[in-house]
TrEMBL record:
Name of the protein described by the UniProt record: SDR family NAD(P)-dependent oxidoreductase
The keyword Transit peptide is assigned to this record: no
PANTHER family from the UniProt entry: DEHYDROGENASE/REDUCTASE SDR FAMILY MEMBER 7B (PTHR44196), DEHYDROGENASE_REDUCTASE SDR FAMILY MEMBER 7B (PTHR44196:SF1)
Source organism of this protein record: Pseudaeromonas sharmana
Xref: SUPFAM superfamilies: NAD(P)-binding Rossmann-fold domains
Entry's family note: Belongs to the short-chain dehydrogenases/reductases (SDR) family.
Length: 249
């Protein structure tokens, strides 16, 4: 039986992925720090195994992951998002939580799993459409996601020599408890069911980059081709018209 390990499975995209993979007959290692939510998730299928740990605690990660066989598919989905309303609030202390949630946790999990993954295994690294453009208020979140994306793209090259594949996943706005905290309009918002379908289809097809929805990605990609000075002027007008413009998973 195929086995998938999913981090951030206690809510949002990870929760839906766990249910959908279990429905397709996969053994699911559903990872997160909220034991109650993971237990609720496991009620949906006997194929879902809760794996509770705090990814900021390397010993917890080690103990939890080594208690289970290595999966054939790993989806690094855990993350968080906070916006910077005032540039004067920029600090190492403000950036650290975003780096821990969106980068360091994934690295801690990979540190335990990589030596155990067999050739032919695949890793899905969930980033965000925010990396396509420098967006107002997204300095902290975007920095963490961009750092993770660089690492993922580099690992995709080096891991290939070990027979491992890595797919970069860049969702736009998905209707999750995380995005429901946003106080701005979210264009092309999609459901978690649609996000799960896009991710599962992309991973099954072996796509190196999984971008969705296209109706958000293509405009952002086109805007990213503008000269830097021109985009800054456009973004400045966005701030002046609506101080709450940003994008993320």
């Amino acid at each position: 039986m195929n086995c998938v390990l999913i981090t951030g499975a206690s809510s949002g995209i990870g929760y839906q992925l766990a249910r959908d993979y279990a429905s397709a007959g996969w053994q699911v290692l559903a990872c997160g720090r909220n034991a109650e939510r993971l237990a609720e998730l496991a009620c949906h299928s006997p194929l879902i195994q809760p794996v509770c740990f705090d990814h900021d605690n390397p010993q917890q990660v080690h103990d939890a992951l080594t208690a289970h066989p290595a999966p054939q598919l790993v989806i690094l989905n855990a993350g968080d998002c906070h916006y910077l309303d005032d540039p004067g609030q920029l600090s190492v202390a403000a950036l650290q939580p975003m780096l821990h949630a969106n980068l360091f946790g994934a690295v801690t999990v990979l540190h335990e799993l990589l030596p155990r993954l067999e050739r032919g295994s695949r890793i899905g690294w969930v980033s965000s459409a925010v990396t396509l453009l420098p967006l107002p208020r997204a300095e902290l979140y975007g920095t963490a996601k961009a750092a993770g994306e660089y690492l993922a793209r580099t690992l995709a090259i080096t891991l290939a020599t070990y027979g491992l594949s890595l797919s970069l996943i860049r969702p736009g706005f998905v209707d999750t408890p995380l995005t429901r905290r946003n106080d701005f309009a979210m264009p092309t918002l999609i459901s978690v069911s649609e996000a799960s379908r896009q991710i599962r289809d992309g991973l099954a097809a072996g796509r190196a980059v999984i971008d969705f929805p296209r109706r958000l990605h293509w405009p952002m990609r086109l805007l990213s081709w503008l000269p830097g000075g021109l985009w800054r002027r456009v973004a400045l007008r966005m701030i002046q018209r609506a101080p709450t413009v940003a994008a993320g998973k």
